């Protein structure tokens, strides 16, 4: 899914919301920018441009029943256990705040240091090919660090985490008989959220430790949820649950989940095809080699080439800015003379020519060459098919692969 496609879907969604609002609201126009109307006595819907808010009192009675149960004499043990659970949340929250601030200062200092740090202009520095340039924190940005197709799943995960977060505040508030005024959900453009609202007078009357339990309960719930999922992943139980509806193909490679209608790959790939390798990198294994390799810059990829006869080299016209190179006449880098040459990539990259890393790895009458960065060539090894050569942006390949597949058509 491209950025334009995602923007179109978002625009259509909000157009439908505003159309329903126009048809639903009373005939008398409101002078206020925010439209608020009651669907039921306990539900209020408010719409303001790209912000939709639904607030309800429907869960107040259930919260009151939880308050009565926790304050009953017979439930002293349960109340003590829950209080201890949220005491742990307060302690972890304090440590987490300190660690978070320390990490923030460390990242800021590292960024400033990288900006002002300069190498000597004439120094020759050998690059470590195994160096990992990734940052400590990896942001999740659809279309940049993850494909656009992941956006719906990310939003659903954020919304579920928000509900669990707010449930923590509600349960902790019930420990101290804080009445729930309302709860609800909201949507800002595409970002969903949930909320609970307590009576402010009751909150102000609480002791500091009680307030700390209620405030830290939300993040504490999210941390416990993360720990549970981490345990599922480490013990293998999560894989067993996933195998009920999905088949793990990570040991085989990456499966093609979609192809753009205008993509040239439509003629050589189909949905369900398994890509087992990219260039010389095998995709078999649990690591995310797919994203790691496709996000690497050309200079960070280890140098492995092919031995070709010297008589095939010589032309360098395609390595210049003009004329534009064609698919059967691309620029190659070489260790020998000439340093650049134009060659047909198809017979070289799809043949069993000897591989090389140095000029001495080839015969005396051969050159060690590999496609230049300007060629943008990527080799795809597809299971059960011939080698595919792709010339174009790598992100188009990256967005269309995953490592799981439904066991049957009825699986979600």
UniProtKB/TrEMBL annotation:
Q: Where in the cell is it found?
A: Endomembrane system
Q: What is its main location?
A: membrane
Protein name per Swiss-Prot or TrEMBL: Endopeptidase S2P
* Domain Peptidase M50 intervals: 154-238
Q: How does it sit in the membrane?
A: Multi-pass membrane protein
Q: Which InterPro entries match?
A: MBTPS2 (IPR001193), Peptidase_M50 (IPR008915)
Q: Which UniProt keywords apply?
A: Membrane, Signal, Transmembrane, Transmembrane helix
Which Pfam families does the record associate with it? Peptidase_M50
Q: Which GO terms describe its molecular function?
A: metalloendopeptidase activity
Residues of the signal sequence? 1-19
Q: Which domain of life is it from?
A: Eukaryota
Species in which this protein is naturally found: Rhodocollybia butyracea
The membrane-spanning stretches of this chain are 84-107, 153-178, 185-203, 223-246
**A cellular-component GO term for this protein:** cytoplasm
């Amino acid at each position: 899914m491209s950025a334009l496609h995602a923007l179109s879907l978002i625009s259509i969604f909000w157009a439908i919301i505003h159309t329903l609002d126009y048809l639903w609201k009373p005939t008398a126009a409101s002078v206020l920018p925010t439209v608020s109307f009651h669907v039921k006595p306990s539900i209020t819907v408010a719409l303001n441009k790209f912000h939709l808010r639904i607030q309800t009192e429907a869960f107040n009675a259930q919260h009151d029943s939880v308050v009565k149960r926790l304050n009953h004499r017979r439930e002293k043990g349960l109340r003590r256990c829950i209080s201890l659970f949220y005491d742990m949340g307060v302690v972890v929250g304090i440590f987490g705040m300190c660690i978070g601030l320390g990490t923030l200062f460390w990242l800021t200092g590292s960024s400033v240091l990288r900006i002002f740090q300069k190498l000597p202009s004439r120094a020759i520095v050998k690059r470590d090919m195994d160096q990992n340039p990734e940052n400590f924190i990896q942001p999740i940005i659809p279309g940049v660090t993850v494909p656009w197709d992941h956006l719906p799943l990310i939003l659903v995960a954020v919304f579920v985490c928000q509900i669990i977060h707010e449930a923590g505040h509600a349960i902790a508030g019930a420990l101290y008989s804080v009445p729930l005024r309302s709860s609800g959900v909201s949507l800002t453009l595409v970002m969903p959220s949930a909320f609970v609202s307590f009576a402010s007078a009751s909150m102000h009357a609480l002791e500091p430790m009680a307030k700390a339990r209620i405030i830290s309960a939300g993040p504490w719930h999210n941390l416990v949820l993360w720990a549970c999922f981490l345990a599922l992943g480490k013990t293998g139980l999560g894989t067993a649950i996933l195998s009920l509806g999905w088949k793990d193909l990570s040991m085989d490679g990456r499966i093609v989940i979609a192809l753009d209608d205008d993509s040239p790959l439509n003629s050589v790939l189909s949905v369900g095809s398994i890509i087992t390798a990219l260039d010389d990198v095998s995709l078999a294994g649990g690591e995310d080699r797919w994203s790691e390799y496709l996000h690497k810059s050309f200079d960070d990829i280890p140098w492995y080439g092919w031995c070709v006869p010297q008589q095939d080299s010589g032309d360098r016209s395609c390595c210049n800015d003009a004329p534009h190179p064609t698919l059967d006449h691309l620029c190659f880098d070489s260790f020998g003379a000439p340093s650049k040459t134009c060659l047909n990539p198809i017979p070289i990259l799809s043949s069993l020519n000897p591989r090389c890393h140095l000029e001495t790895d080839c015969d005396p009458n051969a050159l060690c060459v590999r496609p230049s960065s300007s060629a943008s060539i990527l080799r795809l090894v597809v299971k059960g098919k011939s080698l595919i050569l792709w010339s174009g942006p790598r992100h188009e390949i990256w967005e269309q692969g995953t490592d799981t597949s439904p066991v049957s058509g009825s699986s979600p």
